[in-house]
Specification:
The chain is α/β, with parallel strands linked by helices. It is built from 19 helices and 21 strands. The strands form four sheets. Strands 10, 13, 14, 15, 16, 17, 19, 20 and 21 form a nine-stranded mixed beta sheet that branches. Helix 1 runs parallel beside helix 2, helix 5 runs parallel beside helix 6 and helix 17 runs parallel beside helix 19. The chain starts with about 35 loop residues before the first helix and ends with a helix. It holds the Pfam family ResIII. This is DEAD/DEAH box helicase. GO terms for molecular function: ATP binding; DNA binding; helicase activity; hydrolase activity. It comes from Nocardioides mangrovicus.
Length: about 600
């Protein structure tokens, strides 16, 4: 019985499930990967068991969404459920990247399709377009979709909510599609624009939230060694600037400040004419050199906020690294070519403005510098996602960030799974404007450069190493740690190939060793050649790590610190942390990590 003759599934309008072809589950679509990962196999089972017309797969960046989607497409083509494929991507570069990946699996796509042209060559099985291209001519794409049994793959589907006009265009163009496969690594948005073809279901509070058909979060991918663990290296420093009123202001990056002062301090730090950026770029280059001792082709990426800054950062990097970086500006015709050359080459650094913040696959990226004032959780997750793709077990990503509370909060919530929330609840009758306040706050978060309305003049900056954030816990040294010091190198010099638990143990050890050395220097005691940390030292390190994790959990959930400590004691037993044993503290640390991973 051919695919054309297969009985229809009444619930979906598609053919009823049949035996799958040899392409699955034994191996992925030919040309994408040697075999399917466990999550891809499980997601395929979910997809073909349900036979739903619409399917939303949420998988963390670097997990392999492209392989999953192309395996679905191959299977549907083999079953003759579809005969055409349309891929919608956020950018021109990603559109081309999809066409190249699909070509390798025997699904030739036309990335140069334009609605005005109408038909494409018979050599193509489908087309690849951008969301902007869909919005420009949704009617032409609707006609094309109606003419064939089409699978539409909506990559990073949250972009369909970027504007109401985009969402309406996507809905109009692809409403007639036989199947729609929505993909995203970051399903949450800061606004309330509904995403087309995504199912929303009311939560416990009655507020509609996006409902994924399959979710594979960063925590699970990390446990499966599919993605790299991330070391966030936070840098602080003193910033000085002059306000529009002529007042000179000085503040330390990361200290409690007003929203306006935090924004101005961050902009001062990112000013290429100050000392903060050159110092952090030099530290990042030293980190890259350490990683390249174990991973010779490892590359670095600086994410800049605008083109002028990107060019200035590139000039600074050339002086630091002794090699000109690749500069990628989105409005240049050669941007995609430069990314491809960097991907296949061994250059040390690339500097880009947003273009490499989402979806672009450069697996050798291992060190990043977050040098933009954009501070939404969506953009931050997309940016960090460029560094987490694992090629070999033991690789670790390192991302340098300004010591700003918002960014550090996002970093501590890497393992948190979010849904897209369409509304807010009124907390009580006395707070009837709560929903409106929340929506206004969300709208403010969506602004690309929220501080542009705050005129000021950057006067100067310096940089100091603050701490490392790893698995939600902070590691650092007491006192001010200067750039280029031995204390900083304790963390910049972490080997480039280590298992996650080895990274954690090494961070603890270096923190403990430095604290002991400092105490010995202060007391004048001779430094012993080697000794194991004393019991009280080990307990002190563990209690500090536990308290850091509890603080991160409070930031994520709002749950008071005392409640979290009591819950851990209730689940695991034992006395308060101050008198708990080493084993009990380690058990509590692992339990709160399990909570963060959703285990």
């Amino acid at each position: 019985m051919t695919g054309e003759d297969q009985p229809l599934d009444a619930s979906s309008g598609g053919p009823a499930p049949v035996d799958l072809s040899p392409a699955w589950p034994e191996r992925a679509a030919w040309g994408t990967a040697g075999s399917l990962r466990a999550w891809q196999s499980a997601a395929l089972t979910r997809y073909f068991d349900g036979e739903n017309r619409d399917f939303l797969a949420v998988a963390t960046p670097g997990a392999g969404k492209t392989t999953f989607a192309l395996t679905v497409a191959n299977e549907l083509l083999a079953r003759r459920v579809i005969d055409k494929v349309t891929v919608v991507a956020p950018t021109e570069h990603l559109k081309t990247q999809w066409a190249q990946a699909a070509e390798r699996v025997g699904i030739p796509l036309d990335p140069a399709y334009a609605g005005r042209a109408g038909r494409t060559s018979k050599d193509f099985v489908g087309i690849a377009v951008t969301y902007a291209g869909v919005a420009a001519n949704p009617l032409a794409l609707r006609i094309r979709t109606e003419r064939s049994k089409t699978l539409v793959i909506l990559d990073e589907v949250h972009h369909a909510g970027d504007a109401l006009s985009w969402g309406e265009a996507v809905r109009e163009a692809f409403e007639p599609a036989r199947r729609r496969l929505c993909l995203t690594g970051t399903p949450f948005r800061s606004d309330v624009n509904p995403i087309p073809f995504v199912r929303y279901e009311p939560g416990a509070d009655g507020v509609p939230r996006s409902a994924a058909d399959y979710t594979y979060g960063y925590g699970h991918a990390l446990a499966d060694h599919v993605v790299r663990p991330v070391l966030f290296l936070a840098y602080s420093g003193t910033m000085s600037w002059r306000t529009r009123a002529g007042d000179e202001v000085a503040a330390r990056l990361g200290e409690p400040l007003t929203k306006d002062m935090t924004a101005q301090a961050l902009r001062t730090a990112l000013d290429p004419h100050g000392s903060w950026v050159p110092s952090v770029l030099a530290a990042a280059d030293r980190r890259l050199s350490e990683v390249r001792r174990h991973v010779p082709d490892a590359g670095g990426l600086v994410i800049a906020g605008d083109q002028d800054s990107a060019r200035a950062y590139a000039k600074l990097l050339a002086e630091v690294a002794g090699e000109k970086p690749v500069v990628v500006l989105s409005d240049e015709k050669t941007a995609s070519k430069r990314i491809a050359e960097f991907t296949d080459g061994d250059q040390r650094w690339m500097v880009a403005v947003r273009m490499v913040s989402e979806g672009v696959d450069v697996p050798r990226l291992a060190v990043g510098v977050y040098a933009t004032t954009i501070s939404t959780p969506l953009f931050f997750a997309q940016a960090v996602g460029r560094f987490v793709r694992a090629r070999a077990r033991g690789e670790t990503a390192s991302v340098f960030v300004p010591s700003v509370p918002g960014l550090l909060g996002f970093a501590s919530e890497m393992e948190l799974e979010r849904d897209h929330v369409l509304g807010r609840t009124v907390r009580d009758e006395d707070d009837i404007f709560a929903a409106e306040k929340d929506l206004l706050a969300a709208a403010e978060q969506t602004q690309t450069e929220p501080e542009e309305s705050l005129p000021f003049e950057a006067l100067g900056s310096d940089a100091t190493f603050d701490h490392v954030l790893y698995e939600g816990a902070q590691f650092g040294h007491e006192g001010e740690v200067h750039v280029g010091s031995e204390e900083e190198m304790d963390f910049l010099g972490i080997p480039g190939l280590l298992e996650a638990d080895q990274v954690r143990d090494l961070l603890r050890q270096r923190q403990s060793d430095r604290a002991r050395k400092r105490r010995d220097e202060q007391t004048g005691a001779p430094e012993p050649s080697v000794r194991e940390p004393a019991t009280h030292e080990r307990l002190s390190v563990l209690r500090r790590e536990l308290n850091s994790l509890v603080a991160a959990w409070h930031h994520r959930t709002g749950q008071p610190h005392g409640v979290t400590h009591n819950t851990l004691r209730k689940e695991l037993g034992g006395p308060p942390s101050a008198v708990a044993s080493e084993v009990q503290l380690e058990q509590r640390i692992e339990r709160i990590r399990d909570w963060a991973r959703g285990a």
